[in-house]
Amino acid sequence: MVQIMPDKIASTASYCVSGTLVCGGSVMHLLHGLDWNKVAVISGVIIGIATFITNVYFKNRQTRAYEAALKKGVISPPVSKGD
């Protein structure tokens, strides 16, 4: 089974969005009445929220994988500085 890495997904999404924006330049005459400052702010907020959700999802998967490896004895728990 081939696993797609998150960085490849992010790169693919970035290139697709970029290509869409370049190809969609001919539609700009329909969008000339928009306030681009508001568009930029709203886009930034949406991208920030999406990034946060993605980060939480993959950190949760990483934590579950770490805990499963600990239970199987594949890795040892970290040593605390007080020991």
TrEMBL record:
TM ranges: 12-33, 39-58
Pfam families: Phage_holin_2_1
Statement: the UniProt record of this protein carries the keyword Hydrolase: no
Keywords linked to the UniProt accession: Membrane, Transmembrane, Transmembrane helix
Coiled-coil residues: none
Superkingdom field: Bacteria
Gene Ontology biological process terms in this record: symbiont-mediated killing of host cell
Entries under InterPro entries matching the protein: Lysis_S (IPR007054)
Molecular functions (GO terms): pore-forming activity
Full protein name: Lysis protein
